[in-house]
Structures are given as C-alpha cells and as structure tokens.
Amino acid sequence: MTLRRIHYAFWLMALLGVVGMTQVFAAKKGDNLVQNNDFEDRGVLPWTLWVEDAGAGVAANLLVDKKEQIKGNQSLLIEIKKGGKNNKRIELHQRHFVLKKGQKLTYAMWAKAEDVRPAKMIANHRQAPWTAYGSKNITIQKEWEEFWTTVEMTADDNLVGIYVELRDSIKGDVWFDNFRLYEGDYEPDEELGKKNLAVDAQGKLATAWGQLKK
C-alpha cells in the first residue's frame, strides 16, 4: 500500500470513528429508557407487581388489556379484585436503570382508573437507603390523563427504579400506557400532544394533558 493510500485509509477510519461516536452520544439524549413502555409486543415483562398485604387476602392481577389504550392497540391493566382494609401498598415496578450524578430526567406516564383514586409516582434507589430522586402525588381520573415528575440524580446509581404506588383499600381497574423516562425537561409525546382534549360519556370536556399547566 502506498503512503498516500495509508494516509487516506487512516483519515477515513478516523472520520468513521467520529461519526460513530456522534451517533452513540446523540442517541442517549432524549431516548426513552423504559422497556416495554407501551405494552404492544411483550406482554407485561419486565414490569412487576408487588402487593404488600397479599397475605391478608388482597388480590391484584397484572395483564395486558387489548380494549383500552391511549396509544397503540393495548395498555397495561392492574385489576384489584379484592381490596384490603389496611390501606397497604400495591406497586407497579420497573428496574434497574443506570443513571449518573447530575442527570436531570423526566418520568412520565398516562393512566386512568375505574374509580377516581390517589396514587404516587416515584423514582428511587431500589434498596436501602431507598434514596428518592423524584416523586409526585397524583389523582388518577376516569379518563386518560398524563402525569410526570422531574428526576434529579444526586449520585451515580445503577439500581434506579420507577414505580407507581396504589393503595389496596380501593378495588377496581387501573390502566397505564406510554411510560417514558428520558433525559431533559418534560415534552409532550409527538403523537399524543395533538390529543389535548377528551370528552367523557356525559359530554363534559376533560383535560387530557392533566398536569401540563401545573
């Protein structure tokens, strides 16, 4: 190989390397880190359900519902078949995410419920001392609504989880769809951002964005 060809090959490889690195770094910003975020192809995994008072007879099921959705063709359904009297936790989990100190992320989701119910969305370290990086008390309504909270990383952490906390004292169905965890401030979903209003069965206008103006 001549010296000119060697130089050409060197600079071509260097250019490809720079382009490759740019693509890798660009892909991280704004990427949705949640696996199976819309429940279209993979059943419920890797989502898991934890019932604090299962020993007391509380019954809750986790499954995909093909009749309800805000995006795509199906959603995730938690059926609380038998509630409890102890107001214990029923939690929907996904873990583990590897996040870095100084990162600012948004954790967002859509939800609706058979009956209006309080809930809490949390991002935290999934073992003691259970450091919380972001949390928000919400009220899930009978119409689809989006909720989100800011996640601010105060340490490097490879055991971060996101979850939704319900209470067993209210039985009934709760649906979830289009989970997102991404670096940066809140931004509407490109598709769902166009659906800014929904009409309930009584013809009353309900804000589909919910938290957007807060």
Briefly, what is this?
The protein is mainly beta and 214 residues long.
Descriptive overview:
The structure is a single chain. By secondary structure, this protein is mainly β. It folds into 2 domains: 1-30; 31-213, Galactose-binding domain-like (Jelly Rolls), CATH 2.60.120. The chain has 1 helix and 12 strands, in the order H-E-E-E-E-E-E-E-E-E-E-E-E. It has one helix at residues 3-28; strands at residues 48-51, 59-65, 75-82, 89-99, 104-113, 117-125, 132-140, 145-152, 157-167, 172-183, 197-199, 205-207. A 5-stranded antiparallel β-sheet has the order 1-4-9-6-7, with no helix packed on it. A 5-stranded antiparallel β-sheet has the order 2-3-10-5-8, with no helix packed on it. A two-stranded antiparallel ribbon has the order 11-12. A hairpin with a 5-residue loop joins strand 11 (197-199) and strand 12. The chain is globular. Residues 1-27 and 195-214 have low confidence and may be disordered.
Topology diagram in text:
Blueprint: H1 3-28, E1 48-51, E2 59-65, E3 75-82, E4 89-99, E5 104-113, E6 117-125, E7 132-140, E8 145-152, E9 157-167, E10 172-183, E11 197-199, E12 205-207
